[in-house]
Amino acid sequence: MVSARHEMLNARRTRTANLLLVVFIGMVIASSVIGWVTNQTVTSVYQKVVADGLSSAPNPFSGVSPLYYSRNAVIYVLLIGSLMAIVLGVQATLRDRKAATADLVLSRPVGSVARLLGQLAGLGVVLAVVIGVSMSISWVIISIINGAPLGWGDTGRLVAFSALSWILLATFALLGMLTGLRSRQETTALLVPFVIWSVVAFVLPQIGTAARPVSLLNPVPAVNPTGGYFDLVSALTGPLSVTEQFKRASGIILQDSTVTGDATPSVLILLSFLVVMSIVVVSTPRARMRSGLDG
Question: Cβ atoms within 10 A of the Cβ of 295, count?
């Protein structure tokens, strides 16, 4: 508990992390507003076309789920949220090594596993608060747009999306903690997880789907081509591309009409990565936690 409280306090004092927190919350909120503006613009054009007798097709936004306005939050969690989590994770373990805090803490009857779990718990609370605040404000904005509070079903889906976002961000925070523990230089500790994140978010999906990099910035997963090479490569890279798994599960949870299927496999893959990363981090030797940085 002491380690968790200490980590939450340090997170509040970190300028870079605080800047990313503010940007993340702002972008998640903006996603709802952007969705509303899109709806209003398309509806206005549709009404004009119908009034001119140029179309009798139904309004494309008729019957759209209220959660449509939060669909863009998926990409903001994946991009800004993941980078924020990595920075928090790296700084958590680097701070201990730079200030020799681990030497002091571990000289007392505190195990290395307890120390690392405490830090992870503190980061987990910080991430939960950030996600909770952003999604709560998003809930209010969506309710205002719809002219009535979201029902229990849609609210439950928004909560489920928040939980899924926490799983993804906690996984990347663990990646940051791991490189902070294992790297010999501060620059490397920050650079390595960013490279891994870019590989997971862009390189692996592109290999498996041949999608253009810009299309991977969409809040829905890239479509897998079928046949020969793509069947084999997709089977290998698909489970490793946790960001695409996150998109798929989020799209299903938020009732995005362009995403179909069952979210369970994707959720299980995300949980598996979280568990594996947790085990790897807490298995860090005591000597490594107490080692200093080069230069």
Answer: 7
Query: How far, in Å, CA of 235 to CA of 188, rounded?
Result: 31
State pLDDT tens for residues 141-174: 888 877 788 889 999 999 999 999 999 999 999 9
Residues 6+ apart with CB under 8 A from 210: 225, 230
121 residue type, one letter: A
Q: Compute the CA torsion angle 106, 193, 82, 212 (nearest 10 deg).
A: -170
Q: Indicate the pTM of the whole model.
A: 0.86
pLDDT tens readout for residues 85-123: 998 899 888 887 776 666 666 666 667 777 788 888 889
Residue 281 confidence (pLDDT)? 92
Residue 242 CA to residue 266 CA, distance in Å, equals: 8
Q: Are 168 and 267 in contact (CB under 8 A)?
A: no
Q: Using a CB cutoff of 8 Å and minimum separation of 24, what contacts does 155-159 make?
A: 157/67, 157/253, 157/254, 157/255, 158/67, 158/70, 158/254, 159/135
- CA–chain centroid gap for 235, Å, is 23
Single-letter amino acid, residue 206: Q
What SS3 class is residue 225? coil
CA distances 129 to 14, 132, 134, 163, 268, Å, are 16, 5, 9, 11, 23
Measured CA to CA, the distance from residue 4 to residue 208 in angstroms comes to 39
- Could you identify the residue written with the tokens 């947790």? 278
